[in-house]
Target: Chromosomal replication initiator protein DnaA
Amino acid sequence: MTQEQWGQLQRKLLGTVGKNNYANWIEPLEFSDISEGVATFHVPTNFLGNYVAQNFGDLILHQLAESGQLVRRVNFRVPANSAQRPTAASVSAPLSDAAPAPSLGADQLPGAPLDRRFTFDSFVVGKPNELAHAAARRVAEGGPVTFNPLFLYGGVGLGKTHLMHAIAWELQTRRPDLNVVYLSAEQFMYRFVQALRDRKMMDFKQIFRAVDVLMVDDVQFIAGKDSTQEEFFHTFNALVDGNKQIIISADRAPGEIKDLEDRIKSRLQCGLVVDLHPTDYELRLGILQSKVEAYRLQYPGLEISNQVLEFLAHRISTNVRVLEGALTRLYAFASLVGREITMELTQDCLADVLRASERKITIEEIQRRVSEHYNIRLSDMIGPKRVRSYARPRQVAMYLCKQLTSRSLPEIGRRFGGRDHTTIMHGVRRIEELRVQDGQIAEDIEMLRRTLEA
Ligand SMILES: Nc1ncnc2c1ncn2[C@@H]1O[C@H](COP(=O)(O)OP(=O)(O)OP(=O)(O)O)[C@@H](O)[C@H]1O
Model:
């Protein structure tokens, strides 16, 4: 058959399959040759070859026979010099062979690289993230899909990306046979736009539909981007219908993402929606302690006291990324200047970070709460009386002012009836000792801190 004859045949097919099908599936076919009753067509991708073999193979065979060609089988293959793997899909007469499932080379996977540090081992679990962690663990086992999608949401720097990478690492170890793809919603959009521009939408669809586990980070990014949302919706549906696992993250719950189509919102809510709550003091301290382990190897001989760690966990409550950054800076600074990590160095080195994450808790607020807690008058807390029933609450309030505000000792002294800074220092030290010796004091402080921070 000549190219011209194939051209005529294509036009006939256009009348039968319609304009869209023709443009997507028939036009890209390049006639190669007929040999021993087998008509071979070159196709740009395996996916396209498989699809045409399954859906239009018999029709093409029939048209070839009608135009007088002696053909008993049609064969669609990616030419050997193409970037695609040269596998073939074919249709025989009178029975069509089942086309093989689309296959993907590892190099074709569209995912972003994974961060080596983001594993389950390095993820510290506490009350605020235990549900998200448990759900991520379950998905990472790679067993039957129980909730689809898993939707993780939470504020900035609370560990969403860390958990997604951890799932991907775990799956790569447990189920190396699976195509696991992690990428941000932004990368999804750029791939989609590029595919549109290069007229490679079929490749795009092939790649994303051949994935076994798809993770899309920061999905709120596609809100308001209509065509990307549309494509995301189709990809999502195709994978869910194929019982493939999807994991999505966002900075808020699906229902709260503005400009996201309702049908997508409702799809995202179909599986398990879990949030990562803001960190609490214990979790922050746990994260710092686990990071210190790593720094011990990197900076041998450079010690950091619990007091400094507690101070950081108290004072930097914005997000874990900032907390980690503060610790990194502290180690780097201390090692550069060859000094020990003391409270003084910490306050100097991290002055800007501490200022930025400064709490809005005021000295007055602390004094009021503490006097309410111990059932004494505010004037007695600030006044000169030294009886234990006033002095102890006063010291607790001084201690909390030091911990929860960035006020200096002289400033705190002024607000406590013009006391000297050494009196404040003494009060703070006394409570530090009592916290260790007296369970009741420790409990009171914890309770007060929680109410003040809430
Ligand atoms: N529970 C945790 N244990 C250990 N490290 C954590 C934990 N939570 C967060 N981190 C660390 O905090 C940093 C920020 O986390 P991550 O990038 O996962 O946040 P995110 O929620 O994806 O933030 P964003 O909204 O900015 O994308 C990372 O270095 C991560 O390892």
Remarks:
- The longest strand covers residues 30-35.
- Residues 46-66 form the longest helix (21 residues).
- The CA atoms of residues 96 and 124 lie 55 Å apart.
- The pocket of adenosine-5'-triphosphate is lined by residues 118, 122-124, 129, 154, 156-162, 218, 251, 287, 320-321, 324 (CB under 6 Å).
